[in-house]
Each structure stands twice: as C-alpha cells, then as structure tokens.
Queue: 4 jobs
Job 1
Amino acid sequence: NNGRRSMKYGTTLVFHNHLTAILTAAAKLGGDEATLREYAHGVDAKGTSSVPEFSLGLRSIDDDVEAAAETAPLSLDASTWFDHVGGYGLYGFGSHLKYPSYYAFFAGERERLGAEACLREYFPRLCRGVGGDFFHAIIEVGYYFESDCASPSTLDSGLAWLASAYVEWPDRTGPANFDSPLDALAAAHNAKGLPTFDLDDGSSGYIHAMET
C-alpha cells in the first residue's frame, strides 16, 4: 500500500514518491508477488538489500502526520474538504503536510461511496488543479486505472495528492504550438508564475529552486 508512504522523497523532500510507477511497471512486466514486495520494501525474502535504494529512502506517512501535528491536522468532511486544498504553489513544497488528512478522508469516502462514485464526486473539482507537484498527483490517479482499478488505495492516494498539491496554472499567453521541446521549455522558463528552469542543467534547476 504505497498510500501509507509519504508523497515526498529524499532528505530535503524535494523529490516525489514514484513507487507506484515502479510497482505498476513490474506487475505489467509479469513480476510475481514476491518481486513486487521486494521492490516495495527494498529487501528480498531473506532480508538482503536489493534493487530499490529508492524504496529504502521512502518516508512513512506517519512521519508526515507527526510533522503536520505542529500546524494542526485538518478536519475534513464532504462540505469543507475543498476549503483546504493546495496553497503550496506549483512546486508543491510542503504539500506532504496535508496529505495524511486527505488520504484518510478520501479512503473513507471511497469506502462509503464506492470507488467510481467517489471519483465522480470529487475529481471534477480537482481537475483544474492537476498542475500541482508537476502533474505527479494526476499520474498517481492514472496508475489506479493502469492497475485495472484493482488497487483502491492508489485511488485514495491519487485524490489525496491532488487535493494536497492543488494549484491552478497561471493564464497562458503566446503561442500554443512550438517547433521543439526546447522551445516549449523556454516558454515555460519565461512564463510568470511558473518555475524557473536552467535549460542546460535540466532538473537541477528545479532542485535548486526547491531548496532555495
């Protein structure tokens, strides 16, 4: 259950939890349950450290619960849940603090309504904010469908991530079509309200922006 892990990764909480992607890919490629557990926990059945150093560095959601307690956990219900979405900008730095409360809320709503009804009830209001955390939240929702809807907790975590990192993209001006990916990145680089990237260093520009 990746939902019981933090949505953030690394000592500075700059990176994102991609474990769902790893497990989905491994399953699609024919990995058995033992392989998936090994990837999820970073050790094989004998306790030997294995491939995923990534898995060993993942935070528990309980770490975020503890951190969020300093700012008071959210009290969410069907009438107030949208009042607390986002608030962390496109970087999403700090959005992990709201994630535990939203994860508990959406898990409860999914159990109450059923998965499809829960998605239909809440996703329409979240879809305008899918840019938060650079689309990682909506990708997490996508893995619920990629798993043939067999992992309800992935839906819970995807909706919770969307709500926690919710942010609407600034209005776009200028051309919608570009001659190359580099031109598109250059336009994003210069757009007011969007992160500044170093086009030569790739994601290191994002990391620098997050840390400063």
Job 2
Amino acid sequence: LCLVARDWIWKEFPDLELGHLVSMEGALVSNEVLAFLCVQLGLHKFLDHRDRTLPPRIEAYIRIIRDEACGLWGTDPPKCLADIVESVIGAIYMDGGLASGMAAALTILAPICEALSKWKDEGRYIDLAHPKKTMQELVGSLLLLSSTWEDNFATSTSARQVLEGNSWRPVDPYNSNAVGHVDMNHSTLVAVADASVSVARNRACGIIVALLRSNPALMEKLGDLRRRVESAITAQGKN
C-alpha cells in the first residue's frame, strides 16, 4: 500500500518537496483515509465480528462523514475499517502476486487520488500534513499539546471557553467530553471539546496552524522566539 501511494505521488507530483511527499503519503495510507474508502466501497458490510459496540460506532462514523464537514483529521474512525481495506489488498497480493496487489491498492485509492489530481489541475493548495506535526514544525516546543477530560480541565485551568462542533461554549465541569488544548507558558491558547480524544487534539492543533498561517507577523515573532529558546538550550547543553 505504501509502495503504491509513494509511486503514484512521485509520478503525479514530480516537483513535490520531500517533506510534502512524506506528508501526502502518510495521509493516503492513514486510518482516516482508509476508513473513508472502506465505507465508500461498502466493505464494512462484510465485517465478521462479535463486538456489540462496533455497529453503533461505525454508524456514528458514517453519519459524521456524511453530514459534517470535518476534514481529513477531524474524524476518529474505528480501526477495523482501515484493517478491512489492508486485509483485502493483502489477500489479493497473496493470491495474485505483487502486480495484482499493487493494482488492487491503486484501485482502492483511486477516489482520493482523482480528487488530489483535480485539485492540482485547478491550482489549489494541497496540504495533507497532520495538524500536530505541522504545528510542531512551525513553533517547535514553544507550544504544548495536551488532552484531558472536561471535568478535570475545568478545575485545572483558567480557560473559560471550549470549542465544540462549530460553537464556543463555557467549560462544563460536569461534562465528560475529551478536551484537546494547546498551551504556552502554562496558559491555554485554545481548547476543543469532542467525544474523541484524537479529534479534540487534532482540531486544537489545526486552529493554531490556521491562526499562524493567517498572521505572518505573529509566526515570524514565534519563529524568532523559537530560535532564541533553542539556542539557549543548545548553549546550556554545551556547558
């Protein structure tokens, strides 16, 4: 699967920088993309299991991708959906060999690949990097990503608002949602509440990344601060 994704990206985006190539490959083979493709192909209907909690989780995931514009990293699909896709490709590879396995992988990835090709032809900016990785690349260790449960968050921070869905609301000490928050010097910059820990964390990072990219002056100041902090740490290590 990774071989097919890398080969397709190399041919379709020959001028792509290495960092973007790695990010795109990671996205194409991520659980989020494979789970989406699993549902689009209807493969989830053939899952043989004895987990009573799984059907409602799959139904909830399908409802989210159908009704909400969550973005690539805004969902937390059951891992078994991605496993189904990988198992099908693996079975075809074992039965028909490398060429058949690669053909199957490319066929399954086709809807996503076609969308990326269309965006490229339209001149649209394509960024599939994970928001946490992107935030770390922009500011290093200046910002800290953490997660906890909302009842604990309410008693351990001075933050008064969290983003849930598309709306801000007061922090609720009686809510059991997960909260992903980005802090700087023990002060919370943004906090996102969601039933899923990974979605809360990803959305919090995504908000910070969007803010930095929309404010070059702020990003330049943080970049300068990052360089000074890292230089001081390096100097301290030498001493």
Job 3
Amino acid sequence: PLSSPLSSPLSSPLSRRGGRVASRLEAAKKAVIWDCDGVLVDSEALLKQAEVDALVEAGITGVTIDDCNRLFSGFAPEAGAANFEREFGKPLPDNYFRDQIANSRQLFKDKLEPLNARTVLKLHADGRQMVVASGSPRDRVLVCLEKAGIMGCFEKEDQVFTREDVTKGKPEPEMFLLAASKLGVAPGDCLVVEDSTAGIRAAIAAKMEVVGYLGGGHAQEPWYREKIAAFGIPVVYTEDELYEYIACR
C-alpha cells in the first residue's frame, strides 16, 4: 500500500524526497477531475441519514441508510427516483430531492468535514490542472469547497461543473466530457477521482482513467467496497494513498 504521510498541504515529506515526486508531477499529463460528495468532503453519510429521516416523515418506513446509499449516491435525481420506485414499488414523495438539497445547505455548514483538502492544496501549489465535476447543485458544491478551505483552487472560470451544466448526469459521461473540453485536454489525459458506481461508470464511458476513493464515512461497509472493487479499477482508502497515486499520473 501507499502510506507516506502528508504532513502539510504545501510542504510534505513526499515533496522532499530528492525531488522524486516533484519530477513526477512535472512529467505528469493527467488533469484531475474531482467528484465532490464523498471525495472532497465527507458529505454522503450526512446526506443519507437526512434522506432516511425525510422518508420516515413522509410515512415511508423500512428504508435504510444502506438503501439510500445504493439507490441515490452518485446518481442524478431522476435516476435515483427511478431506482427507488423500481425497488420499493412506490414513488418518492413530491419534491423529495429538492427539499433534501434545500435542507442540506445548513447541515453542511454545521457538520461537514473535508476529506482530501491537503492533497488538493498541494497539487494546486504544484500547478496541476484540476476541476470539480459533481452531480450536486452548484450552490451546494460551492458550500462544500468553501467549508473544505479549497475554494481558491477552483476559482477560475470553468473549474466547477455541476448537474446544471449538462442534460444528462452521471452515470452518463456528458459532465466529464464537458470538463475535458473546457480544460482543452483529451479524455485520455484526464484522471477522475470517484467514490460511486454511477461516477465510475461515467468516467469509464468517457474513456478516462478513474481511481476509486473509499475514505468517506459512507464507503466503509463491505458491500459498498465490493461494488467498487468489481469494476477492476485502482482503489485507495486514505488521503496519503490518493496523493501518491495522483502524483504518479
């Protein structure tokens, strides 16, 4: 496993090994496309509990956090709604996702924790091309970036892509292809960091390299990790491992 520590965002032992990592970064051609929820911030566990609570309030019981994780995580709202109706034989309450999004903003401001902020800051300082491509609404993504302390890494035009920017969200590849186009790089010169099956499918469909990050609170159950491992892609479990992986690309 890759286990070297990141001691600080801008001055880590990794960057002082005789210039080895620095030289790798200079030679690297991969632009990094970050998913947001569950990758940049530990938001998925917060969202899933809120989703279960909202269903109970609407009189729909027997739906677990794991169910919401399987059916909603990484999917565009319309795909998540279809997944739910197919499994439970009933539609979601009216305006379910809209209400969840509205309620999540304050929840994030109060409780959200970063996951890979040090890695983002280090790569930004090294001049690495990076964008965010998230299925969440733009205003919530911006709250996440601000809460994680990495807003300054994505402040240029066309560095944040959300579901408002495309007609079809993940697992369709449209968002990733749009990001590559705006970056001016070929899909094959992009590295996507994802935590969900829908996001991984989208990256594969876009013909991009993808690494699975499973360090979020929602990604600890064996069934979840098995679903990601089934894609046969590289998988990392900590921020240190993720930095080492990206530094080699």
Job 4
Amino acid sequence: ADQLRCTLRMLAQLHGGAWEDEALLRSASERLNRQAGYWTLQQRGAREMEQMERNWSDYLAAFRGEAPELFDRPEIVAMATRLRRIAPWVSEQVRAGPGDASATLVHGDFKAMNVFLPREDVESGTALPIDFQWIGPGLGMSDVAMHLSHSGSTGALRDGGEERLLEYYHGHLCQRLGPSSAAKYPIALARRHYQLGVLDWARMVFSVFFKGASASTFASKASNPNVGFVYR
C-alpha cells in the first residue's frame, strides 16, 4: 500500500498540473494522442470485443473449481455478456477532450513497469514515471483505475483498501487543484469516474488478457512484473 500511495501522489501531481488546461490539452491531442490510453475502444476496435464471451467461458471452466459458489452465480456467468453490452456506452463516458470538464493529461499506460519508486522513504518520496507513448487528454481516473487493477495487490485492495487509496489520490489531487477547482470535483464524481474507468479497462482484460487463461498459464506469468496481477 505504501508503494501505491507513492505512485498515486505522483499521478495526482500530473493530473492536477494539466487539469482543464484547454490550450495544453489541445496541443497534446494534436501532437501526441487524441485520446490517452492504449486500451480505449477507439484504439482497439469493436471487433476485439467478440472474443470476450469465449474467453470468459474458458476462464469459468478453468477456475470454477476454485470457487463454485461464486462462479456459478448467474450474474457472474453472464459477466462478459453484460460487459460487452455496456462497453460502447462506457467508452463514451470516459472520453474527455480538451474543453471538457475534469479533462487532464493522462499517462495512458500507468503500470508498475512504467514507474520508478524511490529506494528509500517510499512513504514521502516521489515516484518517477516513464514510457509516455500513450499520453494524451482524458479523465485522470482512467490512470488510477488501470494502475490499481493492473499493479495493486489483492492485499492492498481488499477490506476497504481500494476505497482508501481512491480517497488518498483524490485528497492529493484536490490539494494540487486548489479550493475552487477541487470544489467542482467532489469524491462522488471522482468515484464514478473511477468505476467507469475500471469497466473500460475490464473490457481489455476480458477481450485480450483472459484468452487462454488457466492455472498453468497464470503460474507461468507469476514472476513477470509486466503482467497485471489480475491475470497472473
């Protein structure tokens, strides 16, 4: 959790520094990426989503024995279908252009492999991001959602840890924004943007990263820090 707080402080500074800066964001959209993130539906294409239900069916077959009381629930069995149905709507909700409210500069691939942590004093030190290939305008919570889902351990996220980390990021973002701008971005709106960001990232996970999922394939990736925790 200490490492996640360190990276979230850095994200809050990045997002706060470009918050609703229309001129900067317009330049970024023209010279870098029109929309941040390699997993956006516009970047990946709708055809990729056709794999979601097959991948999820195979996932359930591979892991049902681990938690049958969970994986046999109808809403869980239908999760890929439900996600595919709402994915285009979710994609539109998380798009934020240069002149939109809450728009900022988003890293677009903020995983553990793309950030250096201080060797000492992680609790108050500064993280250093790298690999800005997918940077561009968007909602800052897209970075937070991808980062926590990809690089946050279950131990850090369970028992209210996810919500505490979200509130921690929001608190540091509001400090960076100042009272006037912070008042326009209450925690309820931030939480909604985060939830939408998780759903948008989940489309990528179900469509691509759950393909061929099994205990053995997950085990083969267990020590690879470039692979998200949710699929290793």
